[in-house]
Each structure stands twice: as C-alpha cells, then as structure tokens.
UniProtKB/TrEMBL annotation:
Protein name as annotated: Probable transaldolase
Gene3D superfamilies registered for this protein in UniProt: Aldolase class I
Domain of life: Bacteria
Record's keyword annotation contains Transferase: yes
Protein family membership: Belongs to the transaldolase family. Type 3B subfamily.
Entry-linked InterPro entries: Aldolase_TIM (IPR013785), TAL/FSA (IPR001585), Transaldolase_3B (IPR022999), Transaldolase_3B/F6P_aldolase (IPR004731), Transaldolase_AS (IPR018225), TSA/FSA_arc/bac (IPR033919)
Enzyme nomenclature, EC number: 2.2.1.2
Gene: tal_2
Keyword check for Cytoplasm: yes
GO cellular component: cytoplasm
Catalysed reaction equations from the record: D-sedoheptulose 7-phosphate + D-glyceraldehyde 3-phosphate = D-erythrose 4-phosphate + beta-D-fructose 6-phosphate
UniProt source species: Persicobacter diffluens
C-alpha cells in the first residue's frame, strides 16, 4: 500500500519525506486555507514548493465547478510540475473534466467519493485515483470502511480498471490498518497518523530494558 500525507503543511511533508516512506501528497482547499495560502500566485508557488520536497504524486485541487473552469484550472495546475495530479470533485462536470484531462494524459484524483457507484463512474472516465472519504462517513454513522471494501471488490472484478483506490479522510491507526486489509492501493493520512505507526508501548519498554542491561554489563566489565 502506498502512503500519502494529507496536508499542505511543508514542515509535515518534509518530516514524512525524511522518514523515507512517503509516496505522495494530497491537499484540498481547506488544507491550503489552514496554511494561510490564498491568491493564484501564492497557491501555484506553494504547490511548486511541495513538488520540490517529494518524488511524485502531489494532488492539487481545482476550485472551479463548471466544466470549462475545471479544465482550464486543471491544465494550469498540471503545468506547474509533472508531479502534479489534478484533483477534481465528483460532480457531473467533474466526471467530464476527469475524462477530458485523462484523455490528454493528465493524471487525476476524483475526490469527495461517498458511494461505490461514484467510484465506478470516475474510473470509467479514466481517473488515476478515486478518493473515498472514510472518516466523514463514520462521522454520520455509516461505516466508511465498507465503502473501501466495496470499491476494491468492484475494481478487482474488472482487471481492465487501472484506477487506484486512494482511501481518504483517514483519522487513525485502525483506519490505516483496515485499508491495508481491504487492499486499498493508497491511504492518505495526516502526519500524526503516519507518526503513530512507529509507536508501541512494548517497544519503548523493551528498548529501555535492552539499554539498561547493556549499561549494567558495561559497568561490570569496567570493574
Ligand atoms: C482527501 O484527499 C482529503 O484531503 C482528506 O482526506 C479529507 O479528510 P478530512 O475528512 O479529515 O478532512
């Protein structure tokens, strides 16, 4: 499973990149706003800065909702760097834009997927990724992981589908574990979730003991 980081914060992206396990980045307009990035030039520059940190696959989301606007903005974002994946919301215009951009060889990530049929039509339009949102479904008492499992099953039923399932709105360690069990191709998570993957209290306790025993042996050897 590929690991993407879900943030527009450069420091977090650098830290995840330094771990050596990062496969890509997803952003969205809310995450960009959280970093105080606004205005066309600042937005383009920020995506450039992200592309300078990671090897590939930086999702940059369009703001336009009409077809013409989406493709103009999508082409503009794609021109920033070959690492850009154009993120398009799941709407009728979005599906048309995914098809248009995919036909032009531009990679797309169809976002705000909340049903398996939305994922299927995005795949049919040639999306490189579909982003089903787990956490936001859980928030309304609907099992988000069930959606991941359904989409993975459907895509596996049709080997001609090359679209990857990019599990989004991942809120914790269990979500990530279940995504891996379900066979999601990618999970995008906040930095705190990535960092939590290295943690276990028994690891801490075990390491403490190893170091203490080593120090004791050194002391005895020195006597
Ligand atoms: C996906 O690409 C979105 O940016 C993201 O995962 C949304 O997560 P949230 O529901 O925690 O905001």
């Amino acid at each position: 499973m590929k690991f993407f980081i879900d943030t527009a914060n450069l420091e977090e992206i650098r830290k995840a990149q330094d771990l050596g396990i990062l496969d890509g980045v997803t952003t969205n307009p809310s995450l960009m706003a959280k970093e105080g990035i606004s205005g066309d030039e600042a937005v383009l520059q920020h995506y450039k800065d992200i592309c300078d940190v990671v090897a590939d696959k930086v999702s940059a989301e369009v703001i336009a909702t009409d077809f013409e606007g989406m493709i103009t903005e999508g082409e503009r974002l794609a021109a920033i760097d070959p690492k850009i994946v154009v993120k398009i919301p799941m709407t009728e215009n979005g599906v048309k834009a995914v098809k248009y951009l995919s036909d032009k060889g531009i990679r797309t990530n169809c976002t705000l997927i909340f049903s398996a049929t939305q994922a299927l039509i995005a795949a049919k339009a040639g999306a490189t990724y579909v982003s089903p949102f787990i956490g936001r479904l859980d928030d309304i008492a609907t099992e988000g992981m069930g959606l991941i499992r359904d989409i993975v099953t459907i895509f596996n039923n049709y080997p001609a589908i090359e679209t990857e399932v990019l599990a989004a709105s991942v809120r914790g360690n269990m979500h990530l574990l279940d995504c891996a069990k379900a066979g999601a191709h990618v999970a995008t998570c906040p930095y705190k979730v990535i960092a939590s993957l290295t943690k276990h209290p028994l690891t801490d306790r075990g390491l403490e003991q190893f170091l203490a025993d080593h120090a004791k042996a050194q002391e005895l050897a020195a006597v």
